[in-house]
Automatic annotation (TrEMBL):
Residues 14-133 form the NTF2 domain. GO terms for biological process: mRNA transport; nucleocytoplasmic transport; protein transport. SUPFAM superfamilies: NTF2-like (SSF54427). PROSITE patterns: NTF2_DOMAIN. It comes from Trichonephila clavata (Joro spider). This is NTF2-related export protein. The lineage of its organism: Eukaryota, Metazoa, Ecdysozoa, Arthropoda, Chelicerata. The keyword Protein transport applies. The gene is Nxt2. InterPro entries: NTF2, NTF2-like_dom_sf, NTF2_dom, Nuclear_transport_factor_2_euk. Has a role in nuclear-cytoplasmic transport of proteins and mRNAs. PANTHER family: NUCLEAR TRANSPORT FACTOR 2.
Length: 138
């Protein structure tokens, strides 16, 4: 990909596709969600840090069953000079999530994705993830 427009278009489509995959996995196949992370990934969940794929997996296992409604996705390519030439995309998602036994809550989540060589070509893996519930101010 040589021109900026192509990179932006690829990032947008990749971000949308990845978001759908992530939340479908989170809601319906939670035991597989850690496969979307790099071994060295980080997750910040409402200010609580989890480092490494194994610790992230253990954290997700503690969460109740969820149902997610994505409301918006924005994805932008990261300049290769910032990520040692690695193809990377920043994906920002917002929506509504409902955990079993809790009321629906607005959330936003940002993923830093990096392309990894797979058997069938490049696949996206999460290098960093930051999730935050939106709280109303009183």
């Amino acid at each position: 990909m040589t021109d900026k427009r192509t990179k932006v278009d690829m990032s947008g489509q990749s971000g949308t596709d990845f978001s759908k995959l992530f939340y479908e996995t989170m809601d319906k196949k939670r035991h597989l969600v850690s496969n979307l992370y790099l071994e060295t990934a980080s997750l910040i969940w409402n200010g609580n840090p989890y480092f490494g794929k194994e610790n992230i997996s253990k954290f997700y296992e503690t969460l109740p069953v969820s149902s997610t409604d994505i409301r918006s996705v924005d994805a932008q390519p990261i300049a290769e000079s910032f990520v040692q030439g690695q193809t990377s995309v920043l994906v920002s998602v917002s929506g509504i999530v409902k955990f079993s036994g809790k009321s629906s809550t607005l959330y936003s989540e940002s993923f830093l994705l990096t392309a990894q060589q797979g058997a069938t070509g490049n696949i996206w893996k999460i290098a960093a993830d930051c999730f935050r519930f939106h709280e109303t101010l009183s």
